[in-house]
C-alpha cells in the first residue's frame, strides 16, 4: 500500500479524518471485485495528491456502525471531506479514475489541481494479447490465451461480466443445475482468468485505440502495446431516450427474451419494437406470458410479413400501432408504462415486464475506421474470428450469429484465444 494511505478503524476516524483539512475515505470490503479494481487507482492518485489530501481506507465489515452513520451501504464507497464536513459526491461501485480524480481536483482547487496533474507521468506496458472488453467472450479469449502462457491484459470501462454480469438470473448455462445470478457467473469467469495470470484494467477508460500499431491508451496515462488484440466490446441496446429506461434496465426492463421470458409466467408483458426481433421474441415470450402487447411507433411493422402474420395469429399477442412509450416506472413488483396514442392521449399500461427490441449497436466507435463490416452492421471476421486488420480479432456480439447467448460468446472467445496463442507461438 502507498505510504500516503492510512488504514484506520472507527476509533481513529474523528481524529484523523474529522480534523484533517482535506481527506478522502475508501470504505472497502474483502472478496470485492469492484474494490480490487479501485485499489490501484486509489494508490496511484494517493502518490499524486497525498501531500495535500489525507488518503484513508476503512474495512467496512469491521466498521459497520461508522459506515452506516455515513450512509455507506456498499463497497467500495469513497467519501470526501473538507474540515471534517462531507463535500462532493459519494462514489461507489465500478469507480473510474477520472471520476475519482475530478472529485480530488475540486477538493484541492483548480490551481493546485493543475499543478498536481502536471506532475503525473505516463508509462508504457507491453503484453502478448490485449483484450478490449470483459464480457463472456473477452474473458474466455483471455483465459485461453493466458493458459497458453501468453501475457494478457483485459481492459473494460466497467467491471467484468458485460451484459452477463447485469443479468438477474442465468438458467441455461451448462454446468449449473440451478439458475445462477449473472454477477456470480461473471465473477467465476474473472477468478478463473485471474488464476491463469490475466491482468486487469477494469472500470478504466480507453482514451485511444489504434489497431494499426496495436496500442491502447488507458485513462490518458498508460499506453499498452500488444502483439494481438481481441475486440470484445459487445453491443448496447439502442436507447429510446424515455425516462426510467436506463434506471430500470435489468430491473423490470429486459432486452433478452431467451434470458428473461421464463420469468414472465402468467404475466402481462409489453414489447417495444417493430422489427424481426420484436415479432420473433414476442412469440417466445407468449409461451410463458398471459398476454403480450407489442407497441410500435409506426403504422406498419418493419418485420418480415410472415413474422407479422404469425404474431397476429397468436391469440396471446395484440398490437398497439402508432403508439410510443413516454415513461417507465416501477410500482411494487410490476412495471407501469405510459403510452402516447395517435390521438395524443396518454394511458398507463401495467405489466409484469417490459422487453425492448429496437436494435443493438456495436460498441466499436474507437475502432470503426479500421474495420470492415458485414451487411448486418457486425464486424466482418473469418472462421477464426480474425478481422481484416492483421493480428486483430473480434468476438461476441460484435460478430454475426444466429442467437446471442453467453454460450455463443464463450465459443467465439475460445476460437480467438486459441488462434491468438497459436499465432504467437509460431512467430
- The number of helical elements comes to 13
* CATH superfamily label of the largest domain: FAD/NAD(P)-binding domain
What's the story with the biggest beta sheet? 7 strands, mixed
Structural shape: globular
What is the SS-derived class?
alpha/beta
- What fraction strand? 25-35%
Q: What's the number of structural domains?
A: 3
> What is the CA–CA distance across the termini?
39 Å
How many β strands by DSSP? 24
Kindly state the percentage of residues in helix. 25-40%
Low-confidence stretches: none
Second-tier CATH architecture of the largest domain:
3-Layer(bba) Sandwich
Kindly report the average pLDDT value: 93
The gyration radius over C-alpha positions equals 24 Å
Descriptive notes:
With 427 residues, the protein is of the alpha/beta class. It has three domains: 5-118, 3-Layer(aba) Sandwich (Glutaredoxin); 123-236 and 360-426, FAD/NAD(P)-binding domain, CATH 3.50.50; 245-356, FAD/NAD(P)-binding domain. The chain is 30% helix and 28% strand. The chain has 13 helices and 24 strands. The strands form six sheets. Strands 6, 7, 10, 11, 12, 13 and 24 form a seven-stranded mixed beta sheet that branches. The chain is globular. The mean pLDDT is 93.
Amino acid at each position: 500500500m502507498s505510504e500516503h494511505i492510512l488504514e484506520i478503524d472507527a476509533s481513529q476516524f474523528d481524529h484523523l479524518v474529522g480534523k484533517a483539512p482535506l481527506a478522502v475515505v475508501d470504505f472497502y470490503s474483502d472478496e470485492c471485485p469492484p474494490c480490487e479494481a479501485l485499489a490501484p487507482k486509489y494508490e496511484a492518485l494517493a502518490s499524486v495528491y497525498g501531500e495535500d489530501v489525507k488518503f484513508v481506507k476503512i474495512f467496512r465489515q469491521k466498521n459497520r456502525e461508522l459506515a452506516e452513520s455515513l450512509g455507506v451501504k456498499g463497497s467500495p464507497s469513497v467519501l470526501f471531506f473538507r474540515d471534517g464536513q462531507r463535500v462532493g459526491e459519494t462514489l461507489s461501485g465500478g469507480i473510474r479514475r477520472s471520476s475519482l480524480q475530478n472529485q480530488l481536483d475540486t477538493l484541492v482547487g483548480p490551481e493546485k489541481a493543475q499543478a498536481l496533474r502536471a506532475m503525473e507521468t505516463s508509462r508504457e506496458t507491453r503484453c502478448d494479447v490485449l483484450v478490449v472488453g470483459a464480457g463472456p467472450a473477452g474473458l474466455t479469449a483471455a483465459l485461453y490465451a493466458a493458459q497458453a502462457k501468453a501475457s494478457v491484459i483485459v481492459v473494460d470501462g466497467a467491471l467484468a461480466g458485460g451484459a452477463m454480469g447485469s443479468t438477474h438470473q442465468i438458467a441455461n448455462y451448462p454446468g449449473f443445475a440451478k439458475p445462477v445470478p449473472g454477477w456470480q457467473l461473471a465473477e467465476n469467469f474473472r477468478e478463473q482468468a485471474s488464476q491463469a495470470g490475466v491482468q486487469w484494467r477494469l472500470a478504466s477508460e480507453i482514451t485511444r485505440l489504434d489497431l494499426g500499431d496495436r496500442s491502447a491508451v488507458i485513462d490518458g496515462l498508460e499506453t499498452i502495446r500488444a502483439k494481438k488484440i481481441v475486440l470484445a466490446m459487445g453491443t448496447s441496446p439502442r436507447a429510446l431516450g424515455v425516462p426510467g429506461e436506463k434506471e430500470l434496465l435489468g430491473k423490470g426492463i429486459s432486452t433478452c427474451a431467451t434470458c428473461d421470458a421464463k420469468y414472465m409466467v402468467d404475466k402481462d408483458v409489453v414489447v417495444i419494437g417493430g422489427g424481426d426481433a420484436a415479432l420473433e421474441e414476442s412469440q417466445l415470450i407468449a409461451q410463458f406470458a398471459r398476454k403480450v402487447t407489442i407497441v410500435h411507433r409506426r403504422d406498419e411493422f418493419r418485420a418480415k410479413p410472415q413474422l407479422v402474420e404469425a404474431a397476429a395469429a397468436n391469440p396471446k399477442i395484440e398490437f398497439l400501432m402508432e403508439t410510443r412509450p413516454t415513461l417507465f416506472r416501477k410500482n411494487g413488483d410490476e412495471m407501469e408504462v405510459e403510452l402516447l396514442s395517435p390521438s395524443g392521449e396518454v394511458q398507463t399500461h401495467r405489466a409484469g415486464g417490459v422487453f425492448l427490441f429496437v436494435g443493438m449497436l456495436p460498441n466499436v466507435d474507437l475502432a470503426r475506421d479500421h474495420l470492415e463490416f458485414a451487411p448486418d452492421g457486425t464486424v466482418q471476421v473469418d472462421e477464426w474470428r480474425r478481422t481484416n486488420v492483421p493480428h486483430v480479432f473480434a468476438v461476441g456480439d460484435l460478430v454475426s450469429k444466429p442467437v446471442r447467448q453467453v454460450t455463443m460468446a464463450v465459443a467465439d472467445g475460445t476460437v480467438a484465444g486459441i488462434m491468438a496463442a497459436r499465432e504467437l507461438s509460431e512467430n
